[in-house]
Design a protein that fits this description.
- The structure is a single chain.
- The protein contains 11 helices and 13 strands.
- It is an alpha/beta fold.
- The chain has a domain of 212 residues: Rossmann fold (3-Layer(aba) Sandwich).
- The radius of gyration is 19 Å and the shape is globular.
- The two termini are 32 Å apart.
- The structure holds UDP-4-deoxy-4-formamido-beta-L-arabinopyranose.
- The site of UDP-4-deoxy-4-formamido-beta-L-arabinopyranose (WQD) has 19 residues, from helix 7 and strand 8.
- UDP-4-deoxy-4-formamido-beta-L-arabinopyranose (WQD) binds next to helix 7 and strand 8.
Amino acid sequence: MSGKKVLVTGGTGFIGSHTVVELINAGYTPIIIDDLSNSTPQILNQIETITGVKPDFFQFDLCDSKATFEFISQNSDIDGIIHFAAFKSVGESVENPLSYYRNNLYSLVNLLESLSDRPMNFVFSSSCTVYGEPEKLPVTEEAPVKKAESPYGNTKQISEEILLDTTKAKGNLKVTALRYFNPVGAHASALIGELPTGVPQNLVPFITQAAIGKRGDIVVHGNDYNTPDGTCIRDYIHVVDLAKAHISALKKMEQHTDEDRFKVYNIGTGKGSSVLEVIHAFENATGVKAGYKMGPRRPGDVEQIFGEVGKAERELAWKAELNLSVMMSSAWAWENYIKENPM
Ligand code: WQD
């Protein structure tokens, strides 16, 4: 039981809440900052039901520098930070770029400035979107970061650069950037999961909402790609596996074994699955039909991407364990839970 205090920004969100559960399981003491712009405080009760612990929660916007500085100065015993808080919709970022640049970048700068020269282990929620359409597959961490396809993806690239430059200037800051592939699924308890607001942009919540009757048929965005079944390929990873990678990253930084204070890791399964394969995996895992029809390509989609994930396995002693079938069955259990227990 390290009991070490870890700040989780965006900790009531989809990935944040699953990471808070795994932090508690690993004996850490998580505290959460969230502005609740894309989540609900009910999640805190869910976390308590799962773990028996209700984490301390502070509701404010990290763009509020006064509140951020006050919080950090009043919590001098924070050993680590896991920074999730950010807007994350690709489509929305195209319509409203300035809100993405302001929110995602200003909140990060505020948080880093408030740390002053305090020693800190900092895990950053990055994304495979920094790779754009990779030339080579599977994509490695050494692949070139390409011009972002969206302001959202650009904020992740710029954030990594801000963090890299800051580790050079601050001798006490260690950063691990985790480049997520496609997080899906839900906790085995079905008490926490993805809570998309409005019409889901992402594939798996759309599948489960279509299957439960909240939506019409799934529209498959394009089946004329140069892939075996013509639909796009992604590296889907169970959100619990992803959450555990954050604990592995913290532990690695606590060991002081790495002179390099800015590290990047791909966090995926290393396996690509097409849209149709995901839909069929859902039907096989749940026995429930998910109606779909073919539609036009979605602007900004890359044809295929999946990760080379050996570096995280070697250096973080972390590897994804849950397969596509468990991702689908857990997502379905969660969809049924929120139908009976709206949040
Ligand atoms: C997956 C595939 C769609 C919906 C996401 C996040 C991004 C980043 C990476 C974190 C694509 C197809 C989807 C539908 C469909 N995550 N699709 N019909 O675009 O890979 O990116 O993960 O940083 O923030 O947006 O995921 O789930 O939106 O799409 O055919 O109704 O499913 O075209 O090929 P994506 P997605």
